[in-house]
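Box 4.2: Ligand-aware structure prediction
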Amino acid sequence: MNRIFSGMQPTRQLHLGNYLGALKNWVRLQDQFEAIFCVVDLHALTIDHDPETLRNNIRAVTAAYVAAGIDPEKNILFNQSAVPGHAELNWIFACHTPLGWLNRMTQFKEKAGKHRENAVLGLYAYPVLMAADILLYKATHVPVGEDQKQHLELARDIGGAFNRYYKRDDFFPLPEPQILGEATRVMSLRDGTKKMSKSDESDYSRINLTDDADTIALKIRKAKTDPEPLPETVEELEKRPEADNLVTIYAALADSSRSAVLAEHAGSQFSGFKSALADLAVAKLGPIAAEMKRLMDERTELDRILQRGAERAGAIAEKTMGEVKDIVGLLRY
Ligand code: AMP
Ligand code: TRP
């Protein structure tokens, strides 16, 4: 049986990269798979946070999932900390993860920066918790943006290590990454060589899912470009990261391809292309922002969705944790 699991951290605001790299694909995949979508609030504790803001962000990410088109009845939608199995399986996996594997993780190196000695254990162990998230539900497919590829390979390694150690060949499935669509790595609007990210200090580097139409248009107008008109072929975008990024965003928003976008816009100056892109972005993101805003005022509705999701996720998780405890040799009553 196929089952999807994926999640986003409730840190800061969701942006166009989160939408095109992940959320938009989830909406499509929910019709083909049994799916579990999680707000990974325990992961959000690995960086500096303010408790009241975190609580608010957990609801905001839930609202974004639903506003983008995730059906909370058909799928399971919940927040990670509401199901204790994540933290429990994390520990068991931690006891099967060699430090050497974690030392290779590029995201830890980036996030820890120069002061590695001061980085917290949770940030280092972050990908172990992520493996636990996925395997607690024996998920087979994980739709994510390209930046999560290495973490998913680790999840496969950890699942495989567990299966081998306890001689239970097929206990955990080895989850497949699903890195889908035209925009698997959306870049900053200010620098086409840097990933669009929640933590970039410039708000002009990203389009937030809650930005209004004027802000979206302004950010696209101010986006960095080069002086050349749009080329005819995708190959010609190769050394033009900012042009490539805008064409990629256009293609993903329009459910089209970069080559189809170029076929239509080759020879255009960026001023004209940017205004077409702004119209498209406002048309696609505007309704999501409006629905998010409406849902954020319906706090009891959001909390009800999460509570119901946690009950359904909890039932699956409890079954896996029972099996895991038996396999590793813990007693349960
Ligand atoms: P995060 O905000 O780090 O919790 O990421 C949530 C999801 O969005 C993950 O699947 C990421 O791979 C994806 N994602 C984040 N930033 C980008 C980006 N710039 N381009 C494409 N996908 C992204
Ligand atoms: N690490 C992921 C990110 O930053 C979020 C995440 C946590 C996740 N657990 C997961 C994604 C399990 C997919 C599956 O984007």
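In the box above, the bound molecule is adenosine monophosphate. The chain has two domains: 3-178+299-328, 203-294.
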